[in-house]
Amino acid sequence: MSQFDVVVIGAGPGGYVAAIRAAQLGFKTACIDAGVNKAGDAPALGGTCLNVGCIPSKALLQSSEHFHAAQHDFAEHGISAGSLHFDAAKMIERKDAIVTKLTGGIKFLFQKNKVESFFGFGSFKGKNGDFWQIDIDNKGEKSTIEAKHVIVATGSVPRPLPLVEVDNVNVLDNEGALNLTEVPAKLGVIGSGVIGLEMGSVWKRLGAEVTILEAAPTFLAAADQQIAKEAFKYFTKEQGLNIELGVKIESISKEKKGVRVQYELNGAKKDEMFDKLIVAIGRIPNTQKLNAEAVGLAKDERGFIAVNELCQTNLPNVWAIGDVVRGPMLAHKASDEGVAVAERIAGQKPHLDFGTIPWVIYTDPEIAWVGKTEEQLKAEGVDYKKGTSGFGANGRALGLGKAKGTVKVLADAKTDRILGVHMIGPMVSELIAEAVVSMEFKASSEDIARIVHAHPTLSEVVHEAALAADKRALHG
Ligand code: FAD
Ligand code: NAI
After folding, report:
1. How confident is the model at residue 309 (pLDDT cuts 50, 70, 90)?
2. For 136-171, what is each residue's pLDDT tens digit?
3. Which of 47, 234, 421, 475 could form a Cys-Cys staple with 435, CB 3.0–4.6 A?
4. Measured between alpha carbons, how far is residue 58 from residues 95, 115, 147, 177, 280 in Å?
5. If you measure from the C-alpha of residue 57 to the centroid of ligand 2, how many angstroms do you get, rounded to a whole number?
6. Binding site membership of 48 for ligand 1 (Cβ less than 6 Å)
7. How high is the pLDDT of residue 476?
8. Burial bucket for residue 226 (CB in 10 Å: 0-12, 13-18, 19+)
9. Structure-derived torsion over alpha carbons of residues 475, 233, 226, 437, reported in degrees to the nearest 10
10. pTM for the complete prediction?
11. Are 95 and 88 in contact (CB under 8 A)?
């Protein structure tokens, strides 16, 4: 029977990165993954992120942004393109090619780093001395391998809505939403979270009439509310996304003409027909095929594998990372936990600061933040100061034709240490990195204010917001 120092279950951004790092540190490492490609006929590494998450969604966001820009923005640059044609199938083909390239890239990285790759579902069988026994089920073909350390990285799956079953024909989860080959005339989305906004934006830009039905009364409750309110205005007033908050979905039925959704909004009964309906109401940990109970692997009250701050489970030498454990469901969080666990197994003492994990929503304008929101600081009674600056008069943003949005820097009123940075605007997915580095190095807002920022760049808005925190904005 093959024995390994480290066996990773799951090859998403948590698992594949953990496996590569473990192998780099000299451990004999294997990674078991059950993911298959879109056709369902071959293994596909990379998990949710590469196959049906981060990467394909960003490909479609880019394609739809180009189409929208050609239709609406090119004219002011003096460019006319005649009659525009859009081919959704071609856009999906491009997206699929990017996915194939990247998932194939992980196969190559495994080979390069000597990570042994197994296809199938991994599950706990029991123990043999110091070794955990892990069964692998490859479509009924069974084998067992042994590991001193096991890293569980089985990720998450969409949270089901009890009112309707996803068929990925008319009622879609993220997988279906990423694979429509025709633009639906009327698209309904349940949930105005990250997926709802990103996918709603894609299909709206391509011509769909989009209605997003959200249960919560507050839009993007996790974000700083100044930024969330600005985003709501752009999405609804400028882009025409119809976002209804405080909705109670009462029934969903699949009918010949589409999907009927009956809901209550402000005490009034509503009845809407959609051609397609996306359900994006969050994700739940994926522990289904692990046989966790057989070995007593503990879960928390929400079904996540229970871990401490070091990603240790209740079982010796069994670790868990990524979406299957507490914390934000983000690819970079999963990867960084993977690196940290591999290094802990090697006896190192890496540190992952949850307070500096950035969030990005890839709408237009983009939204990004790191650290505390103003609402959190108020609730915690922290004495803070703030500086804001807009993209409206930024030369680069004007040149790009994307001169809208805001950067807000929150800093401790006494020490000036940066406590949070919140952004909405062009390419803030990239600008947030400066804020993350600053917070990791415990910088003050004055530190950012005193750093030279190239001109003309979007980063000057970050600079200006930091200056504003000290009431010395130059262009405000
Ligand atoms: P996963 O990526 O879910 O990977 C788990 C892997 O384990 C899968 O391959 C699965 O098949 C396999 N597996 C499960 N059980 C077993 C088993 N028993 N045996 C063997 N293999 C098993 N995050 C971002 O940071 N940025 C984004 O832009 C972003 N966009 C997203 C867009 C969408 C539409 C979605 C759905 C998610 C997005 N996310 C994004 C979230 C991101 O995809 C997840 O946080 C990330 O994939 C979690 O990584 P993971 O390794 O924990 O799990
Ligand atoms: P989400 O948690 O972001 O949003 C779900 C939304 O659905 C919430 O606003 C919630 O209030 C609402 N909701 C829940 N039940 C409802 C109901 N019955 N009726 C109406 N609304 C309801 O989850 P989402 O969008 O499914 O995404 C899952 C996760 O994937 C995200 O939380 C994020 O971690 C990750 N992701 C990250 C992205 C990024 O980093 N850019 C992009 C997409 C997903």
Report:
1. very high
2. 999 999 999 999 999 999 999 999 999 999 999 999
3. 421
4. 9, 28, 36, 13, 17
5. 14
6. yes
7. 74
8. middle
9. -70
10. 0.98
11. no
- Under DSSP, the state recorded for 181 is S
Which residue in the block uniquely carries the two structure tokens 């939403």? 177
Tokens of 37: 């490609």
User: Using an 8 Å Cβ cutoff, are 163 and 173 in contact?
Assistant: no
**pLDDT tens by residue, 337-380:** 999 999 999 999 999 999 999 999 999 999 999 999 999 999 99
Whether the CB-CB separation of 19 and 8 falls below 8 Å is answered with yes
Mutate to test the pocket of ligand 2, among 283, 304, 364, 428 (most ligand atoms within 8 A of CB): 283
Q: How far is Cα 250 from Cα 356, in angstroms, rounded to an integer?
A: 39
Q: Give Cα separations from 180 to 88, 92, 98, 187, 240 (angstroms).
A: 8, 8, 17, 11, 21
Residues 67, 57: Cα–Cα separation, whole Å: 16
Q: Is 453 a catalytic residue?
A: no
Contact 84, 73 (CB under 8 A): no
Distance CA 131, CA 5 (A): 9
Residue 1: pLDDT band with limits 50, 70, 90: confident
Q: What angle do CA 381, 436, 309 make, to 5 degrees?
A: 70
Q: Say which amino acid occupies 322.
A: G
